[in-house]
What we know:
This is 6-phosphofructo-2-kinase. The protein has helices spanning 19-26, 67-81, 90-100, 178-200, 215-225, 243-253, 264-281, 287-291, 314-323, 342-346, 357-384, 397-402, 415-420, 450-456, 458-466, 481-497, 508-518, 565-568; strands at residues 54-60, 85-89, 136-138, 145-147, 205-209, 231-239, 295-300, 305-309, 333-337, 407-411, 430-433, 501-506, 529-530, 535-542, 545-554, 559-563, 570-571. By secondary structure, the chain is an alpha/beta fold. It is globular and about 75 Å long.
Amino acid sequence: ERLRRLPYEDLGTTEGSSPMGGLFFDTPRFANSVPFFRFQRFGHSDARTDSDHKLVVVMVGLPARGKSYIVKKLKRYLSWLGFQTKIFNVGDRRRLAGSTGEHDAPAGDSGAGSSSSSGGGGVPLERTVRSKGSPAHACSGCSSLAALPTGDIAGSRTPPCHRCETRHSSDFFDPDNRQAKLIREQVAMEVFEDLLRWLQAGGQIAIHDATNSTIERRNALISRLKSEVDVNLLFVESICTDADIINRNIRLKTHSPDYIGIDPKVAEADFRVRLRNYERAYQAIGVAEEQLDTQYCKIIDVGKKVIAYNVQGFLESQVVFYLMNMNLEPRIIYITRHGESEDNVAGRIGGDASLAPNGIRYARALARFIDRRRDEFAAGCHEYGRSASGAARRETPSQRRRGEPEFEVWTSILKRTMETVECFDPQRYHVKNIRSLNEIYAGKFEGMTYAEIARGFPEEYEARQLDKFYYRYPGIGGESYADVVLRLQQVIVELERIRHSVLLVTHRAMARTLLSYLMDIPTTHMPDMELPLGYVYACEPRPFGNFLRVWRYSQRLDDFEEIDSAAALKIRYPRIGLSDPGTTPPLPSPAETA
């Protein structure tokens, strides 16, 4: 309804189409042949296809097996492609239920009258310290001991300990604890109901993030989904046999919301008991699911081995294809624009100009900078014993030259990017020229300045300002940012697959699109990211996301200096000239996830 009120009359809206379909897809000037973006055609009257189906991804696996790592990466990738994607975490609901008393034990059960975080529901770890001389007393939110305030009557209940009521100790996950098991199952199904309601409201891919470690739980989810129309189910089981990875994940778990304020050693000991409780009841995906022809995918050791069963749908195939290309090898993804070109000096867009004198100086400094950064990163891998090759040693330049290059440099096939990397030592760096990294093609506006476009084509200029993500440049071969996402999909998958560092020397639109994926920036903000010339963005994959560092080239120093990464990723919001000042601003891009 808000889109219908926008001044799109001159943009060729298709009569009779839905607002999403007409404005963004059916209109030739805003058309997009990308199959992924057909998913945004809510309410379209055309015949239904496989792309009209929705998908529920249900995670399966023991704790500390990388489920949350997989979920976050998968959500980031699918959202970047344009799917409405959302994560539904059962652990968050469990903690919330414990704090509100939503799932109190039924009367007559063990621990009757207590909340889910007390009695038979599990005893939270002690978080309060009694002062000397203060009488011991049980807080009302858990069974830990608290100092009894002066004037309280012995035997009365005190208010809950600070932040303790939302945690559950390892006893809560004991498979023999029937009351706690009922609570866990109830919470998991409530989250699943929320997930289905979100899909019915327009969502496309929902991820149920939980252990779902028993056949009983998984059968309940399958049975509930049978009543839903056009909603497919895919189980994704994460299995890890690497003891080093498991121990590292366990140490990370001591910083989870369950253990805020707890001594790390105490938290780790409790989590290991929790893990043993899960292992007692764990039932891997297998024959039971195959008898029901349920789609599933097993990810073993973060992509080293992948088993897929009965995977048929388009959405499911996209998920499995992406998961097959993950790895945990330490590496850094560097992204920079080319050096200043002659067209940059003139303010012209597109084209295939050579580097200007400032661009040549930037190219020389960039080669020196990457050489230095590469050696620093290798030294860091040596220090922490986690080099990509598995050997805790730092390789010398002569050792690198004897083998295959372990650092790649990717450029577009345009002259200004290829000239930017001419100073790199070919013995140390493997340079690839990739057409997909070419700048967004401006159609008949190639070689023009934005001022010339505004004067000669004011309607086109305003249309682009109104929606830069879906706007497609006029003329043969003109592209939109949505087209660029499709063009870069294989590049993204390759970035996930490679096990060594890489430098991408590309263009502004490409850098925006790549960084929006790596840093989980909504596509609504992607076209307005300020990424000037002379900056290097370094993304290092880590367990809870990509860590970003930014360097800026200084002509005075003829070198790079590090700057605040948060300040470097600025988003410039253009002023949109609407004919009616009271008109409601446009909706966010359908790819944006709340």
